[in-house]
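Q: Hi! First time asking for a complex rather than a single chain. Here are the components, and I think there are three in total. Is that enough to go on?
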Amino acid sequence: MKILTRIGFWLLVAAIGLFSIFPFYYAVMSSFRSGADLFKVAYWPERLDFSNYVAVFERQPFGTNIFNSVVVAGSVVALSLALGITAAYAFGRIRFKGRSLLLMTILAVSMFPQVAVLSGMFELIRSFGLYNTLPGLILANLMLTLPFTVWVLTTFMRELPKEIEEAAFVDGATPWIVVRRVFLPLMMPAAVTTGLLAFIVSWNEFLFALTFTLTNEQRTVPPAIALMSGSTAYELPWGTIMAASVIVTLPIIALVLIFQRKIVAGLTAGAVKG
Amino acid sequence: MSSAVAPATVPAQVPVQGGRSSLTRSRIRAAWVFIAPTLIVLALIAGWPLARTIWFSFTDANLNNLTDYEFIGFENYIANYDGEWLGLLTDPDWWRSVWNTVWFTTISVSIETVLGTIVALILNASFPGRGLMRAVILIPWAIPTVVSAKMWNWMLHDQFGVINDMLLRLGLIAAPITWTANPDTALWTVIMVDVWKTTPFMALLILAALQMLPGDIYEAAKVDGVHPVKVFFRVTLPLIKPALIVAVIFRGLDALRVFDLIYVLTANSRDTASMSVYARQQLVDFQEVGLGSAASTLIFLIIALLIVITMAAGRVRLSGDPR
Amino acid sequence: MADLVLKNVRKSFGRAHVIHGVDLDIKDGEFIVFVGPSGCGKSTLLRLIAGLEDISSGDLFIGGERVNDLAPAKRGIAMVFQSYALYPHMSVYANMAFGLELAKSSKADIDSKVREAARMLQIENLLDRKPRQLSGGQRQRVAIGRAIVRDPKVFLFDEPLSNLDAALRVQTRIEIAKLHNDTGATMIYVTHDQVEAMTLADRIVVLNAGRIEQVGTPLELYHRPANLFVAGFLGSPQMNFIECVVSHVGAEGVQVQLPNASMLTAPVSSQGVRVGETVTLGIRPDHVKVSPQGSLTGRIELVEELGENHLLYVDFGKGRHLTVREPGDAHHQAGQEVALSLAPEFCHLFRETGEALPFLSESKAPAPSSPDMSSRAA
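A: Yes, that's all I need. Here is the structure of the assembled complex.
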């Protein structure tokens, strides 16, 4: 009976693992097959054919797309953290009138449906002359990352000991110095966590990237992959798409594996403690 | 001696008390300086666009020319021309998308909650390789939605897809299924892919709640010889209920605005179109900014209403949802 | 130069009033200890002085200057926190230098001050370490060093020893006393530990529920508590309290009837006291003796043998107890019936308001010897 339970348990673990990994495994496998091979279902790799990986960069400016994604996600992370840490200090450690109302408003923004701001954002980006540019996308993506960055950092900021801040005030620090010289170093782990989440959100963002760019050269990776087309409109280049998918997913998976604990901490910060 | 040194102005100062020391004052001033950039940015990129969207919903604006439009009142929502009712609220496609979204949200969140709880319970047990498992289940969550939609598209391909192949080999189906195109299976397919992608998120939130439970209750239950299933329903579930509710609300709000997955998996098909897909289609593909904005505004109102109800209801402190 | 005056200082958080009008004069160079049960407002009062909390009303003067509206750093104070509050990411040196650096002192000046303080505290070899590499006692020294380098007019200590183990606590206590002697600075020290209060203070301020109960030298407070609260708070084991009825008042004192009907005359002022009034008699365990002639009889319930002396818990009927301190060579057992004698000259009487009746003549009672700071400090 005990053994049966153990076997059942491990079968369940295996099933969950398989279910989680299989699509990615299958994408990797497919990406190494081309021509007629691709259209025969196979479960095990037979040979490594890199032609899809070559094609992905030859047939479209995929290198540029990756570069765009990195620039957009990197800038969004930097801006969100810079704005978020100062705001989080104010929200997390200073009592002032209207604090909870503002914090609730910011939280509400993080739950905005993207589509609700689509036409207004479109107009805004156009009027700034940022349509079909990376700065336009950076601006738009901030709406997605800034609210939760502020929120998560505020939760972390609340946990720092009060006495350290007070010691700094007795030492003659201004609030700005407290943030910069005392809390910023202490907030580094939290900033890494939050930055990672913001990076993933921005890296994966699709609706804005699809709507606010026009040419392939300005696209980030998700719309580039979504809009990949083959020689004819009806034939999708599955091998190339899979190769592209693997390329953009690998760095994210690497991040997840390396920073697994930090990501989990960030995901659950506040959600459970509340 | 000190009292002798006390300045003569003291009596004058006494009535004006309740003043703030310079520390409190400077901190409050700093607070506003510190949040000002964030507030300005958010007002610019969230508040203003939202206001404009709502305004556009009362106009006949067109995407080609966003500067030339007229105020038309509620005509985008509902209007009567020569006895015929027109507008968003009379469009069967809109109502179809509302229904699709509600259906998608209800089913996928329910399945994700149940599966997420099971996965969380498993990950809460200690077994070799637990850390690895935790990282592994994060993979579907981290893969960009567009990419996972494409991967599944390929796996669900009607002729060359591995899913059909597996099911055929197992003898579960007689002929390949066109999963994403068939109206009977399309929405279920979307739900399945969403379950694959977001169950990890649920599982991790629930796991975090499980790990905060004190271990001694379980030991007590074990000593009392209570059956594990009973322990789960009588002890564990009530204790993690608050966290579970938070997670469900999150996922629910998130699912209501679903766009990427459906758009990539099944394009603009009306069998699966969500409210967001519908709104974007009006807005971008049909260039009908007025009508599209009306749809956007309704989505916003629905979600805003739910948020307000939630916040009022449980005083639940929600965290930043990274998705 | 750095005297400190509080005038009718009040503090409220919203509707909760935490400090109810505190008046206090602290002389330059004095070592003052705020003591009281938790929640009495002692820490809040210290934080008001530091400028970490706003004073709701009233005035605070440091060195003759009204500092209500000054930032903590401008008040000429330094503070040592209970949790030490060292900056975890900075070295010991940087921790101590931070304040001077912010005050824009010259590099050379900072260096000499930090090294001087480190030498004084014998932490020179720790200057490059990070706080997490230090023991609790070492962290405490760094925290004190950080205060010293600022050369403050007033040192504020917020329960600085409560995170240390017993042996270290005694040692650090002695060092703080030495620091006071060496610097001659005014020091205000918050603690809930009466031994710290008694050993360190020039004057103790006993706080209760946001009010000052009594201010005085340790021995004044011990021998002449102004009220029931102070009497019960200081001294371990606690002072015994017995409810009595006044049977006679006269020039020689107030005579009370003990529960077993025996009479006792305490040499205290009878002014305003009526016969028949209920009062509380207070006597410390040291002043109750087991003696055959004792007027109060009871049964020993428990004996705590401490070595040097023993504590007897004596039940003398109706659930009333007395604690008695007997020399360690006296042999008593639980269950034994004993007679107790109370030394009348050491009996305090408290009226129903809690206020103590003043002793008639200081000569009759053991005079609170004039405190000799240095001997007590060392």
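A: The first helix of chain A runs from residue 2 to 31. Let me know if you'd like any chain examined more closely.
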